[in-house]
Design brief:
The protein has 8 helices and 7 strands; from the N terminus they run βαβαβαβαβαβαααβ. It is of the alpha/beta class. The protein folds into 2 domains: 8-184 and 224-246, NAD(P)-binding Rossmann-like Domain (Rossmann fold, 3-Layer(aba) Sandwich); 188-218, no CATH class. Helix 1 crosses helix 8 and helix 3 (66-80) packs parallel to helix 4 (103-131). The N and C termini lie far apart (41 Å).
Length: 253
Amino acid sequence: MGRFDGRVAIITGAARGIGLGVATRFAEEGASVAVVDLDESAAAGAASTLPGEAKHLGIGANVGDAASVEAAVERTVTELGGLHILMNNAGVTRDNLLFKMSEDDWDLVMNVHLKGAFLMTRAAQRHFVAHKYGKVVNVSSTSALGNRGQANYSAAKMGIQGFTRTLGIELGPFGINVNAIAPGFIATDMTDATAARLGLAVEDFRTMAADQNPVRRVGYPEDIAAAATFLASDEASYITGQTLYVDGGATLG
């Protein structure tokens, strides 16, 4: 038996990277997974690769748009038979120094990360409250502690931590646990794109990142999936409002 047999999970931004890694692990643990991504064809393609015998679903949705979010949640409940777990993972970067950062750069990052988490959780919690059960896992970042050229991203990711703490207080009495994961450097298409933007080879960029943490390696989506699986399980039922840093110790000193 898997930890998530009979459970239904929605994961945003799950067509690739961290989201797909978590979706794969949840499916291996028995969950039915709704893969939500801006590109519905990419979401459907990712859902088709998920393991296990449960039914999976790919949904195109804009997490920054309330109507799109509501439709995605209702479709999940209708087609997969319920909703028990939400992971707010959708993300985007528009890095620049403050004096070069446009309003569009700021607004896009805030809308996807912070407004998206708000809208998705607001829509999901109605189902959670009705059944007195729910698990929310938000994705923050070590950049929440400050990172040059990421004023928008850092602000949004620290906002996620405040959002998580507040919902831990509000939703705990209804059987809902809300926690966050703050990844360090994770080897994904997004970090590979950063290497390209800086004019660095991917392996050189990863080596530089590995040298900046005590365990001397970069993280992978599987590392975040392991943490998310625990926080979304009943084993973590006495944990809420917390942010778990999964960063190889990079923020220790």
